[in-house]
Amino acid sequence: MVIGAGRAPLVKACLKAGFELNRQVFVYAIEKNPNAIITINSLFSENKQELKNKLAVVCKDIRSWNPPELADILFSELLGSFADNELSPEILDWSQR
Questions:
Q1: Most exposed of 17, 20, 44, 58 (fewest Cβ within 10 Å)?
Q2: Which amino acids are annotated catalytic?
Q3: Least confident of 1-15, 38-52, 66-80
Q4: DSSP line for the chain
Q5: Residue 21 CA to its chain's centroid (Å)
Q6: What CA–CA distance (Å, rounded) separates 28 from 77?
């Protein structure tokens, strides 16, 4: 799960790592900003069918989202853009439930 996916650099890195290591991955890109969701969806729109079983884009706040399964790994850019503390450690604690 990528918490606070933003413009998806970590999402792309996770998918690329799975491809390069020849491993099956499923990435949940969780982002609460609807404008960022538009960007994420446009980034992956060309490969939408190919990524159907590899990526789910979730437009929710992690504190109110109940995932359908547990994650093996959580990724996040802890401080967000320009160190604005948009994604604070308290939110990461919340996501570990």
A1: 20
A2: 77, 86
A3: 66-80
A4: -EES-TTSHHHHHHHHHHHHTT----EEEE---HHHHHHHHHHTSTTTTTTTTTEEEE-S-TTT---SS--S--EE-TT-GGG--SS-HHHHHHHT-
A5: 19
A6: 15
φ, ψ for residue 36, nearest 5 deg: -70, -35
How far apart (Å, rounded) are the C-alpha atoms in residues 85 and 94? Answer: 15
- Non-local (6+) Cβ contacts of 79 within 8 A are 85, 86, 87
Q: Which domains does the chain have, with CATH numbers?
A: 2-95 (3.40.50.150)
Alpha helices in the chain (DSSP H): 9-20, 34-43, 89-95
pTM for the model stands at 0.83
